[in-house]
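haha ok so turns out i had the wrong file open the whole time. this is the CORRECT one, sorry everyone. sequence first:
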Amino acid sequence: MKVAIIGAYQTKFGELWDKSLADLIFEASVGALADSRMPAKKIQIAFFGNKLGPQTTSQNHLSALVAQLLGVSIPVIRVEAACASGGVALSQACLAIESGQYDTALVLGAEKMTDQSPAQIAQALMGAASSQEREAGLTFPGLYALMAGKYLNDFGAKETDLAGVSVKNHFHASLNSKAQFQFPVTIDQVMKSGEVASPLKLLDCSPITDGAAGLVLASPRFAQKRQKKNIYIRASQHFTDTLSLSKRQSFTEIPSAKKAAKKAFIQAGVEPSEVSLAEVHDCFTIAEILALEDLGFYQKGEGFLAVRNGQVKLGGTRPVNLSGGLKACGHPVGATGVKQVVELYNQLLGRAGKKQTRKAKVGLAHNIGGTGGTAVVHIITK
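then structure:
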């Protein structure tokens, strides 16, 4: 597989009171197109990742809104796959380019979340879980707390190891001008933050966020006419699993992510050991630890040791979530999967600023919907 990325952009993430969903879509579109040095009229198809638009803005038919904002009349497809909406939108764009029918595609992800109350947002987000789990009173913090509790019990990790993920990702976000939380935290601060669902504390959880991100994709033929050196998506894999966590055989792994990763490594022709950096779906701190193992970077039950030993921090052997991750950069759910690849693209081009890692050659993005009902893995190389 070989799909070129020729432009990328991320808005500021955070509580953007002066921005509407349309404003965010427009900014990400214009920014990505400007980065690609290509006008909107050259885009042949667009995919838009968004989960909550109809609930939070009372606006349906968002694909037509995207076309209106761009001033184009092309196929625009809105993609909804819970918190993996952005990743699936990117995957669909890759398929469109790979089919040979299109030479260019725009991928957008955007969400406007902070105009609603936390209770309203929590209810809207829980639409991505099964009705039985909702009726039982579970929220996503509760579901991931079950996964965290089982992991701590089975593998001897401590609550301070969960806190270590938060500390690392807040440090990375402190170097990121686009992040929602641009400040470091300590283990003690995480441990003393309010308990949300034992063993998860407030600072173990990703926030409610507004934001958008965009990518311009092109066929190799189109990209090579513009410039000789390009960044390429070499693998794009999307798998689904059960909606309900209770239907899984294990609470300490996400089978859809394992399958997507295994197939992505085969498709890209690389091994896990060759990955230079990764952006993984740390909606809760336990999710990053599970991802490190599901992706094959570490053996089962050893992911927390990589965090504890600094292997996945800037300057470590394989830095993870240099953007700050969902935890500290923010989690505008429809935009997250696109933002992850924007970060990898900037890292591979050497333009990531203070958080730039050395020798960035192969990047991996891991985007999850729900508790793993959807998983998308992309591998990006120079």
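The chain has two domains: 3-117+209-231, 118-208+233-381.
again sry for the mixup
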